[in-house]
Design a protein that fits this description.
Blueprint (H helix, E strand, L loop, with lengths): L17 H80 L3 H73 L1 E4 L6 E4 L3 H10 L2 E9 L5 E3 L2 E9 L4 E8 L2 E9 L4 E3 L8 E8 L3 E9 L7
Helix pairs in contact: 1-2, 2-3
């Protein structure tokens, strides 16, 4: 059975300075949230710097390995070259003291040694050029990655600043309307942008819904709601709530009017706001307290 009709409570408009104080508190909470975002960005920057340092150290390690390998190769070629030079000198001395065919053979052997020496020198130069090219490629790759990281960090900073500015503007434009239970003015959202700003404030949980006229209750958050009546011309609607196993009817509510009700799960009231009324449906959101604890 439906509960008896509740007396209709006229909204109380708060004209005292308390509204300004609450705005300051909301903006202070926003500043704290932005501070947390800045701290998170700082941590991301620290991680990025650590990653850049790790990349640089790895690159330096690779360069040291290449240098070490190049040094060993150079030493090996140098020893080979020195050995060939000694052998060439000996061959030339033999050629100088030899006669006839022995001299011809000695000169031929000397030419072969000279050609081999030239090939060894050319091969050593090719290896050195290849090693230097690899080091240059790794340096270019590292510089490119560092540039990409710097660009991403700059983009994040710009997005954070833009989000902060837009959020401040949206919060400043939010409407404050007195609820039908608590008698206190609360911020309400009239569209998706404003609802996003309320979510960013992080003061309450928000559940968006779209309800049609049905015979059964429909789940919204942790409460059950049934759409009973719609008056499109007057922008009014009537819903029935199942709260703590009791049915509560909210009659002739208007668009963007905060409809509040109390549950045993929280000390603060729940709040339903309908932003759009059509022929057979209503759409809006349910706001619930962050802290869920039984009332005394």
């Amino acid at each position: 059975m439906s509960s008896p009709d509740l007396p209709k409570i006229e909204p109380i408009h708060d004209t005292s300075s308390g509204g300004g104080g609450l705005k300051i508190a909301v903006l202070f909470g926003l500043v704290l949230a932005l501070g947390a975002a800045t701290a998170y960005l700082y941590m991301q920057l620290q991680d990025t710097r650590a990653e850049m340092t790790k990349t640089r150290d790895a690159l330096l390690g690779e360069i040291d390995k290449v240098r070490e390998a190049t040094s060993l190769t150079s030493q090996s070629h140098r020893r080979t070259t020195d050995s060939l030079k000694v052998e060439l000198a000996n061959a030339r001395r033999l050629a100088a003291s030899a006669a006839g065919q022995a001299k011809i053979d000695a000169n031929k052997h000397a030419d072969e040694l000279a050609e081999q020496l030239a090939k060894e020198t050319q091969q050593r130069e090719s290896v050195l050029k290849a090693d230097i090219s690899k080091v240059d490629e790794k340096a270019v790759t590292a510089n490119s990655k560092i540039g990409e990281v710097k660009t991403e960090v700059g983009t994040v900073k710009t997005e954070v600043a833009s989000t902060k500015s837009e959020l401040e503007k949206t919060v400043a434009n939010l409407r404050r309307v007195t609820g039908d239970v608590s008698g206190q003015a609360s911020l309400i959202a009239t569209n998706s942008t404003e609802l996003g700003a309320l979510k960013a404030l992080g003061e309450r949980n928000y559940f968006e819904f779209k309800l049609s006229k049905t015979k059964d209750m429909q789940k919204v958050g942790d409460v059950a709601v049934q759409l009973k009546k719609i008056d499109v011309k007057k922008n009014r609607y009537t819903i029935e709530l199942l709260v703590d196993d009791k049915r509560v009817e909210k009659r002739d509510k208007t668009v963007n009017e905060p409809v509040q009700f109390i549950t045993t799960r929280a000390k603060q009231p729940y709040e339903i706001v309908v932003n759009d009324i059509k022929k057979d449906t209503i759409a809006g959101y349910l706001a619930t307290p962050k802290v869920q604890s039984a009332r005394n």
